[in-house]
Automatic annotation (TrEMBL):
Domain Fibronectin type-III: residue ranges: 290-383
SMART domains: BBC (SM00502), BBOX (SM00336), FN3 (SM00060), SPRY (SM00449)
Gene3D superfamilies in UniProt: 1.20.5.170, 2.60.120.920, 4.10.830.40, Classic Zinc Finger (3.30.160.60), Immunoglobulins (2.60.40.10)
GN (gene name): LOC101888161
UniProt-listed SUPFAM superfamilies: B-box zinc-binding domain, Concanavalin A-like lectins/glucanases, Fibronectin type III
Ranges where the B30.2/SPRY domain occurs: 365-553
Source superkingdom: Eukaryota
Organism: Musca domestica (House fly)
Domain COS, residue spans: 215-275
Pfam families with a match to the protein in the record: fn3 (PF00041), SPRY (PF00622), zf-B_box (PF00643)
Protein name (Swiss-Prot/TrEMBL): E3 ubiquitin-protein ligase TRIM9 isoform X3
Keyword Mitochondrion: no
Residues in B box-type domain copies: 11-60, 66-107
Alphabetical UniProt keywords: Coiled coil, Metal-binding, Zinc, Zinc-finger
InterPro entries xref list: B30.2/SPRY (IPR001870), B30.2/SPRY_sf (IPR043136), Bbox_C (IPR003649), ConA-like_dom_sf (IPR013320), COS_domain (IPR017903), E3_ligase_FN3/SPRY (IPR050617), FN3_dom (IPR003961), FN3_sf (IPR036116)
Amino acid sequence: MESIVDRFCAREALRCQMCETDPKVASLVCEQCEIRYCDACRELCHPARGPLAKHNLVKPKGAAQQRESVCGEHEEVLSMYCLTCKIPACAECINDQRHPQHEVQPITTTCKAQKTELSHNLQQLSEKARSTTEFIQRLKGMSDKVTESCIEFERLVTAQCEALIQAIHDRREYLLEAIRMDKETKIRILKDQQSNCTGKLQQTTGLIQFCIEALKETDSAAFLQVGSMLINRVANTDMTWHQEVTNAAPRVSPIVDLTLDDAAVLRSIDNLNFIQMKPAKDGDERLPAAPQPPAIIPEDCSAENNSVTVAWQAPNHSFVEGYVLELDDGSGGEFREVYCGKETICTVDGLHFNSMYNARVKAFNSAGEGEYSELIGLQTAEVAWFTFDPVLSGGPGSGLIFSNNNATVSVEGWEHRVALGSVGFSRGIHYWEFTIDNYTADTDPAFGVARIDVNRNKMLGKDEKSFAMYIDRQRSWFQHNSVHERRVEGGISTGSTIGVLLNLERHTLSFLVNGMPQGSIAFRDLYGVFYPAVSINRGVTLTLHTALDAPQMDYF
């Protein structure tokens, strides 16, 4: 490397630095002054006397003859190169077995090969540098195009905003003209009414003056000739005056009973924004790109009972025609679509209790569907809170009477009526109780579960859609599809508690009376969706209690 530098700098290294014109070849360089001198300038500028006599003058670098590298140990020229050790060597180094069985070759061959490889690499690097230079030029050109495009876009946006402002001005003139026309119409109506009232007043004043003159008549016979007619006319005038003037109201209101509905326009202005367009070639129509992912708003999302609410924000700079909300199955399974529409909030009911649901949403437009938003997890309640549902129980015509925020139910008729709970269960373990608030008649209330299409005008358990235990003061039976079996001793009275345990992990249904199991498991192999249900008739009032922990049953 030193030789390369010397050769590269040789021309400059051999020139005198003190010659004013046409520098001559330097013969010496002062190590202290670090200045090169030719012979003439040395005698003139750096004489060997005085303080300068102690300076060390040497031949300048680069002026030496080209030298060859030699072995530091043998003082021989390094003529070979060991490919194994990757070091140069002299002939003595090769002969004294310092590189046994190593692959060696002449150093000139190795040097030529590495120079060739270096040249090849330099050519590739030069090609990449050239490509990078072209890319930089393209970037510079694109910067200019960005500036031009933004200027043009600013002009276009300004023109569009000016057009919107002009549309507002035009609409304002239309609305003001409508107000002026309404004002002229009202004034014209008021003037017509005023003219009518003035004419009526003039007629009445003339009649009054004529009657006053008639009253001055001293000839009785002459007065009687017109007296009856004047009395009738005055009476008729008084009646019409009462109807047309006294009770008359202005035909129009002086107050403008209109208001400007600008809320929608203000919302549109607030939502005025850019939308992302698809890249298009020159001359092609530009179309909106697929929307960006919406952003879930965690603080507006919630889970209550067995329902979840998901809220999201529209993506910026995207044209959106609608959204698709998807939920998994609450166990990390496949996602399914639960909502498709334009709203940005959705509540999904009828989910499983004690489950973690993952939700995601995507936007779509005519160009296609965008990417999904990030997931949000929502945990449903561990235990169910619910009431009786008057609508599911048959509505106003059912004969059932609900009170206490739909937690208490009774009925007036002697026929059994079925009351259903407000939630259905398809998974998990659920327990609820009924307290007997009133039990005065000789009747058999039934407790259990039913499907949504149960017959609501029969005792619970009379059809294939319901599973029940009916009970009186002394004993109980289990009943399904009109088949009742397994009589169990022990009845109810006012103040008793009936517990219903639905275990959909084992698919069983069990009952408790006053905290004790009423027999063994009542029903097995329950699959599907089941609603809490009771059937009662006259003389029974029940109150439902929910969100209870399930009791431990020994026979489980």
